[in-house]
Protein 1
Amino acid sequence: MSGSAKPQRIALAVPSVCVVADDEVARRRVCSILRRGRLTVAGNGAAVEELVSSLDAKPIDAVIVATSSEAALRDAVVNVKSRWPVATIVGILDDVTWRGVRELLGAGVAALILAETIDTALVVGVQGALSGQLSLPAGLREHLARPRLSAREKQILGMVVMGFSNGEVATKLFISESTVKSHLATAFAKLGVRSRSEASQLILDPSSGFGTGILEISSASEPSA
Amino acid sequence: MMDGQATMTEGNPPSAAPDGAEADALLRATVRVPKHVVYRDFMNETVVLNLESGKYHGLNPTAGRMLQVLEKGVSLREAAALLATEYGVANEELEQDISALCRDLESRGLVELVLDGTG
């Protein structure tokens, strides 16, 4: 019998990841979890610059960045992107806000893991991100859908965005000022903002917000309260 | 057309120009801003919000100034005369511009035209 086929050995590529965390204890813990999850930790450092100096020219598949604030993470992500434009970026934070998540996704983060969940969520988050999936804390679910504002909330927000005071809004809409405040509180909660300036910024900033289209009133709008 | 011709953004283009009699009637009309409309002047534009549709519309400074004058209750012709002096252009030119603007605003539900014998 000639030409019996030899089983071909297939080399499975093991993703190469790096870790950046200014807290050394956290960094060691993250590296340990990744190794347990059969990921190769090619390097780690307290900052992106330190990581760069410790690495050779090997390609990097993913960079895991743990920081104490969304702003610090955003800065680190920009830094990572400038050095490894195609690397997948996974962020670890103690807490995330919906606003911060939007900005971080915009900056290029593919997965966000809460620090308290890294034992169970980090490896699957990294693997999902490397497979082209987004991974976010489930607690953000209700904020990721387009908020359903009532027609009245849209009217009030519409005037707030234009700079009208609560008193002016109340007069124009023939409702009391306390009713305006109540509608605004509900609308702010739906939008995930804490103030009229944050609401205005979210609605008016096309890069991180919804655009004024979210205030358009149609038959699909929830009825006014 | 005068420099700084009145323009607005969003929505459909204005309808075709009316004939002579209709144009004259329009120039005698006054303008009323409906209760469901609010507007505010900003540095480079006037933003008009239709509270029924939730849509914003932007007027350039010339159109914003026209709306400001018209809301005082003067006719389109009187507003055009005042603004022609202000901008140093011919009355006829401004009458055409202000008429076009008002037809456009009316088509979007942003103003009501009060013709002779109405309102």
Note: DSSP finds four helices and five strands in chain B.
Protein 2
Amino acid sequence: MGDNKKGAVYIIRTATEIMKQWAIHPFLFAIYPIVYLYLHNLDIIVDLTDVLAPLIISIAISAILLLALSFFINKQKAGLITTTALIQFYSFGHIYSSIGNYVHVFEIGFNKGMLLLFFYAITFILILIIIVRAKKTVMANTFLNLTSIILIIMLLSNFAIAISNIKTQQLPPTNIHKSDFSGIKPDIYYIILDEHARFDVLTQEYGYKSTEFIDYLNNKGFYVANSTSNYAITSLSLASSLNMDYLDNTNVFTTIEQARNNEVAALLKEYDYTFFHFRSPWRPTNQNRYADKEIDCIRVTRFMMLVTQTTMIIPFEDHFHLLEGDKRRYLKCVFSSLIDLADQDQPKFVFAHIMAPHEPYVYGQDGEYVFSRDEDDEGYVNQLIYTDKEIMKVIDKLLDTDQKPIIIIQSDHGPATFESMIRDPTDDLVRNRMKILNAYYLPGNITGELYETITPVNTFRIVFNNYFGAEYEMIEDKNYFSRYDQPFNFSDVTDKLKDI
Amino acid sequence: MNKKIALIIAAVILLPSAYAYLDPGSGSMLIQIIFGSILGALFTLKMYWKKIVKYIKRLFR
């Protein structure tokens, strides 16, 4: 008993001494902002690999700065300066994003980036002078050590809760109904154009008539439906269409897993199809371990972009668009890879969720470089026109074969701003969000099976019935709207959509 | 009272998140940092309490 007490006293003393003398806070403050962003967006970025690169870079920069400063001043002071720099670096983007583009001081307008950088530089110099001149820094060091540990403990508890949520979600095995089939197996391309509006919404809301694209599709033999989405959010929409049914769960992790481990791909693999998955910068399609082959056009993940947006890099990124500009390369890569795939061995099922015309807008209508992160109408329409043009090139190539493939060009949902999706929906929002592009190229003149108001939930029921001898019944086309912040709080807007 | 404190702590620790968009969560991060700093300051005060009292007494002597 006495030994235990001595042991406890020894541990407390050692811990106290570490808190006072060691500078562990620079490492914890290097970890905290990254892990915070990860946990805050855990619904979307479950893959830890997204977080590793920025985390390692952050810790490495902190260690290098600490080491470099240690050559000139004592370790505690080096730690305090490093942490000051880290706090400034990681707080900059938060403040930068929350103020307007121009800040007025004595009626003179200043660029917010320049003004904020100036303010930060002055603050840093002042703190630097105070730290260098200070006789004792032990209390400041202790305070930062304790605060950083408390912040990390808060994150760990958050992480533990999130992990326990994930563990409780067990996905049932994919329910496959394979029919006896030994006929021709056409390639199947399922191409999702994120946020592509339906033609009538484009005309009414954006004043743009997509006649050229629709005429092209009709002339090529596509059936262009007057379609609506079953759900208003990407992962819900994809989980539903790829499993040919409405969702029966209310958990985001299960939904994402359903979108990946989906019935359509599983069935097609049973028919000896090779499953190609195009990685997108977006959950839930940023990877798929169930795919036979993954096409990776991603260099800068959305998470990396998010980290950048919260740091001191943001004014420079806003000016030069070095990272966001990577989307141009990504889109080019996706379209050219789709074209290249046409020549690969058959049969194949190709799933490509393409982040266009979704923002950021990086292409004008003729492929010229533009940049806008704002969800503005002009940027949206121009990127949509560009996307349509590229898709037409892809279709030209895919149809330039003897054995014609099945091509489905669909949007997961229509356009809406982030702000509008966290408020109660208006009729305009429901209409714009739920009315989608939905075009089918089904070789062998079976377009008669399709109907004007078909929704994605029935897409592959028709494909399997007509090409693989399956006997799926068409299920009722329903539309469920939900907000981003309440994804499973569905409003049945099926009837409403008929009137608006 | 304890229940109220527990609720406040839970609200700070459990970060809300929007679903489909990546969100910097500036507001909740700020709250968490303020909360962490206050706790850090209280623990620091506890560790140096004797020294602080001694220092203050010396000032008014």
Note: Chain A has two domains: 2-164, 188-499.
